[in-house]
Amino acid sequence: MVRSYRKYEAGQSFGTVCSASSNALWTPDGFSAATSRSTGAGRAYVGANEDVLGWDVKKGELLSRWQDKDNRSEVTCLTPCAAQPDLFAAGYADGSIRIWDALSSQIVVSFNGHRSAITHMQFDREGARLASGSRDTDIIVWNLLSETAEFRLRGHKDQITGLSFLRTRPSRRQSPHTDEAVDVGDADEEVEEKYLLSTSKDALVKLWDLSSPQCVETHVAQTNGECWALGLSPDGAGCITAGNDGELKVWRIDLEALAYLARGVSDGKKAAILTSQGTLSRQGRDRTIGVSFHPKQDYITVHGSEKAVEIWRIRAADEVHRHMQRRRRRRREKAAAAGETLLPETEETLGTPDVADVFVSHIIVRTGGKVRSACWAQPNSKSTSKSLSLMVATTNNQIELYSVTTHRAQQKTAATKEATPADYTRALSVETPGHRTDIRTLALSSDDRMLASASSGQLKIWNLKTRSCLRTLECGQALCSAFLPGDRIVLLGTKAGDLELYDISTSTLIESIPAHEGQAIWTLAVHPDGRSVVTGSADKSAKFWRFDIVDEEVPGTRRITQRLKLTQTRQLKLSDDILGVCFSPDQRLLAVATLDNTVKVFFVDSLKLFLTLYGHKLPVLNVSISSDSKLIATCSADKNVRIWGLDFGDCHKAFFAHQDSVMQVSFIPHPVERDEAHTLFSASKDGVVKSWDGDKFEQIQKLEGHKGEVWAMAVSRTGETVVTASHDKSIRLWEVGDDLVFLEEERERELESMYESTLAQNLDRDFQGDEEEQQDDVAAASKQTISTLTHGEKVMEALELGIADLELMRRYEQDKLRNPDAKIAAPQRNPVFLALGNITAEQHVLSTLRKIPTPALNDALLVIPFSTLPTLFTFLALFLQQRMMPELAWRVTYFLLQAHMRQIVASRQLRPQLEEILSAYEIWQEEQKRVVGFNLAGLSIMARDVREAESGGYVGDEVEEVEVDKGRRKRADYVPVWFKWKTKCKCAVCTDLYEQRIKAGSGSTESFDLEEKIKELHRLHRPKFYKKRDEEAARRAQQAAREKQKAAEEEYRRHRQMVAEAEALAKERAAEEARKEEERSAMASMVAKLRLQCRTEFLDAVLRIEVAQDDEDADNPTQRRRNEGKFIVCDHCRSHGLPCNEAAICDQCILHEVACIHHLCQLSPQRKDECQMPTCRYVHMDYVPDVGYDLMWVILPGNLIDYLGAERKGRKHGPLEVKVETLIARQKWAVEAIEEFVEKSEGTLETVKMLCGCMERERAEIAKKEAAIKKMTESLPQFVGGGW
Questions:
Q1: Which of 685, 787, 935, 1148 could lock onto 1252 through a cystine, CB 3.0 to 4.6 A?
Q2: How far apart are CA 676 and CA 718, in angstroms?
């Protein structure tokens, strides 16, 4: 029976506050409806390995966890959406992007276009587009409305470090009530974001035009070679770039020139949009990785990778002016003191202030750890606020909120008291749920309910069920730990050589014992009886300590309390540092791992040496003994795990377990089942935890999830839970699930995942190579993954089934029309359609297309070959005709036209399908236009009713823009055109009609009739006014007609040029095809002659081999006839190096009777009758002599079909009748014959390859493809009369 194992599944990780790989974001929390003020300190959204965590900054509580079960990559970038505060974009290390909804903690949409980690992202103002930059040097602009990638910008040569949309204000827009353009004023809605500013590590800053798209400007951002940060001012008029050595460069952005550039207005001189204003220097000389402007106040945060955040202040204009005057005054005083005379200066001669005069350092905030990111908290605070809030996420797993005094508050304080520098305070922090440094040791309580984790300076007690921190205690630099019996006291061994006892209930240090004289205590182990403990140290000694209970008096009272005390009883001295100790469960042996790469086993009672285990090449880091005291497992820095027997000390197995040092190894302490007694776990610095079968010496499962080195591991008492701690600051639980693990299935799954990843990488590498060959700054954003490849294959399968069913049903319908009276049975359809509810072929194909995620649709369509397009276009035409999601059908059609434009233009086959699609699309488009026009007309009527109700005027009248108050937004007051003084007719008839119209009201039939009469009379009485309007309308119509004609002529010229280029290309291909055809014919004749000559010589060589038969075969004429011309190695397999999976006759050999065996049956290698496979075509041992040579090249006499067929029984001839020496000799002669044949024909190995026909078949396939291309390019479509 095949053995099964319990499967371990990853649980939620804990202990991580924030990761050093991602930035942090601050958002306001809930608002009170009564006060409209924030009720707390806000929320912090941070990346925590592969999750995104939301923290309450004030309470330090975890509010939300955004986790995608299908994702294993860590978060590298976060950005908020200003238009929708509940949306956040998270970028990951694998290049994927997920848009999260903070309210539901669900994924809104996922994008996957980058090929490496995301480094920066930015939403536009409306939240409709997202720009992302990556380490692959590309920028991709995503459309969140259509959930597609618009394009890829490829101008940079290194990773992207900053992105910002630039907002330009259009000067004029079209009025909704007249045909004239009007000024838009200062409305915030009228802002365009057509430009993108980007910086990269290649020290370049680029300005991109997103409407073209193209690169407008490129500047060198930094003088020291790298640019690491970009900060844009809130008004968009300036920015700051930062690089190495604390250098900050200030840039001015000319928004007016950018607006003129957007409208295409130019005076012939190209004005620079970005202009350098100067350079600033930070106090810190490290690399600057973050620059952020305050959205409301004139402050800037600048930080590097050290423990400091610098806050700069932007001086106001009057302050800069006073500073320049003081500088002039000091210059005059200095000149007067030196006896010099200066010319009189005016206000105009003060000069232009330098960048250092405008930007001044305000304060430096010293943080508790190295800064990863810093952002402003409570950015909506007023400019009169006395303090600023700054949130900092550090690399040591904590979030801090600082309150910084503003310059205004500092001036007010200086006016009443003595002047003091700006100050800051640490207001809040989130640090309890995690360690500041790496966790080096883990320990589980006896009931597996509590977990103790210790690092340098902190000991934390966790509740495993709730994953919450119960206690946090200060300690030394812990290296090992253990719960003492009773689970109330934790024992720690430190690097300083001290043993520290902590009481969990009171959170106090009971005692600190200097156990090993200042030398590090690397390991400790509690005796199985729970009465003592042994410690191993770098002082080359192992000390034994007994647990004693002593009575002590409470100071100041007469009360006596009991306290635990450690008393040293014995000491074991060794020649090297002790790195690991372990008691055997039967209390008989003690295993000690030392620095000399060995493990020594001692008797516990006498401390005499029992065994010494040699074999590791580097120091042994940890040891573990199985629960039955029969096996001992050791792990070492040489990446190996060894399993030894404790009876004789022999090494049962040594296997290469990990890709880095194996830090810890452990058996299950008290397994429930006997089969799990030898189940082994190992943890390594490669970030992987593995489980092993100690009896079969095979890997059971690989547990991947950590993003750094695994330093510590603890296995629960019965093996239900495995706890690991890593360099990524996370603690992970691996718990037993409901599924079982079978070794064969696990290996197949690993091989399948490896194959899929390799396949996706190769496929994406091909697409990437095609993009790089274009050498354009703008390209399509595509990336091939396993998901897109799977979707593409499903579409091809659906098309294959659908076209067959479609033709079947069409024939059935035609038969019914021909014979309406006859009863024709329904055809037998594919069972797939019946299983899906007897759906049609169109519904099946459409359902397959709809199941593809929108962001992956284009990449999945690229998998479909060009030969499948006619079938797909047939279904797309049906979708448009039957109105089955025509939007999706047209989107697929449009993308396929873009992707295969050249082949489609050169092919006449697709023209009928395309014409059918175009006609169906035009009909559907006209229907949609009518629907939209009807809706717009209804909305316009409703809008007129609303305006009439507000102003009391007439329906359908024009309006004029009237400014109500200064500083307020403009509104449109409703004024009828015939009531305006300049155009109003003052005759008695019109006046009477005006009064009747007012009395009739609005909305009735009478009112509409009166309006028509008023308009007619008004046109007669005021001809000049209407004549001017009619002339203006006619002029505009003529101008529009001329522009339309010009555009049509330009389109026709462009299409004619395209056709001419296609014709030239076809002629060039025809000439190249003729030349290749001549070469192929010459090659074919030469190969034919060579094949004939080679076949004759080869047969002669084979016959010469047969002459060398041994005496036994020579005396037996029957055996000689049977073996004549049969003993030769398969030329096809030998020359190509191909493995045959089946032992059948190779149909590619020049001698079709030649047999070549390459595989022995693994299911039943002894006898074919015992094989479990019903139709086994592999070789068994009863067919092959039992000899000790390589079976890969055994040559059998005669036809192999005689040995493998059903008639084999009863035959007496076979390989068992041939001597082993004869087979080996004939094999050697066959190889020599082939080598001699190659030498005599004066050719190379290619000559031998020609004999099997493979190269000839490949040339035939190439010729067939080229003939198909030539046939497609014979005729080209013509562009006549503005269309094809």
A1: 1148
A2: 9
The vertex-711 CA angle with 705 and 714, nearest 5°, equals: 80
The DSSP output letter for 1160 is: B
Tell me what the mean pLDDT of segment 67-74 comes to: 90
pLDDT > 70 in the chain, percent: 75
State mean pLDDT over 249-275.
78
Contact 799, 875 (CB under 8 A): yes
Label each residue of 1072-1092 as H, E or C: HHHHHHHHHHHHHHHHHHHHH
Q: In what order do the strands lie in the sheet with 5-10?
A: 5-10, 731-741, 721-726, 710-715
Structural contact between residues 532 and 547, judged by C-beta atoms closer than 8 angstroms: yes
- On the question of pLDDT at 691 being above 60, the answer is yes
| Rounded Cα gap, residues 641 and 657, in angstroms | 6
| Whether the Cβ atoms of residue 89 and residue 76 lie closer than 8 Å to each other | no
Return the number of other C-beta atoms located less than 10 Å from residue 758's C-beta: 10
Q: In whole angstroms, what is the distance from residue 698 CA to residue 2 CA?
A: 14
> Which run of H or E residues covers position 196?
strand 192-200
Query: What is the C-alpha separation between 201 and 703, in angstroms, rounded?
Result: 36
Is the separation of the CB atoms in 701 and 679 below 8 Å? no
Q: Which residue has the higher pLDDT, 385 or 1?
A: 385
Ramachandran sector of residue 378 (left: φ over 0; alpha: ψ -120 to 50; beta: rest): left
Residue 196 has pLDDT above 80, yes or no: yes
CA dist 204 and 129 (Å) reads 24
> Does pLDDT of 171 surpass 60?
no
Strand, coil or helix: 422:
coil
- Per mean pLDDT, which range of 135-149, 561-575, 1002-1016 is the poorest? 1002-1016
Residue 164 CA neighbour count, 13 Å, CB half: 25
Query: Phi and psi dihedrals of 885, rounded to 5?
Result: 50, 65
Distance CA 481, CA 664 (A): 14
b/e 943-978 (16+ beta carbons within 10 angstroms → b): ebeebbeeeebbbbbebeeeeeeeeeeeeeebbbbb
Token pair, residue 477, equals: 């630099």
CA distance 419 to 421: 7
Q: Which helix (H) or strand (E) holds 904?
A: helix 901-905
182 contacts 960 by C-beta, under 8 angstroms:
no
Spatial neighbors of 562 by CB under 8 A, at least 6 apart, are: 549, 550, 551, 552
163 within 8 A of 153, measured Cβ to Cβ? no
CA distance 1055 to 118: 41
Q: Please tell me the predicted confidence (pLDDT) of residue 448.
A: 92
- The answer to whether residues 714 and 732 touch, using CB atoms and an 8 Å cutoff, is no
Q: What's the 3-state SS for 947-1011?
A: HHHHHCCCCCCCEEEECCCCCCCCEEEECCHHHCCCCCCCCHHHHHHHHHHHHHCCCCHHHHHHH
Write a three-state SS string for 6-50: EEEEECCCECCCCCCCCCEEEECCCECCCCCCECCCCEEEEEECC
The pLDDT value recorded for residue 1275 is: 45
- At a CB cut-off of 8 Å and minimum separation 6, what does 356 contact? 278, 280
State the burial class of residue 528 (Cβ atoms within 10 Å of its Cβ: 0-12, 13-18, 19+).
middle
Q: H or E segment at 282?
A: none
In angstroms, the Cα distances linking 1283 to 615, 903, 923, 1052, 1063 are: 82, 19, 17, 8, 18
Tell me if 707 sits within 8 A of 726, measured CB to CB. yes
Give the mean pLDDT of 196-225: 90
At residue 638 the predicted structure's pLDDT band, cuts being 50, 70 and 90, is very high
Range name among 45-49, 180-184, 799-803, 992-996 with the lowest pLDDT average: 180-184
CA atoms within 13 A on the CB side of 693: 16
Tokens of 1121: 């006839």
1190 confidence band (pLDDT: 50, 70, 90): very low
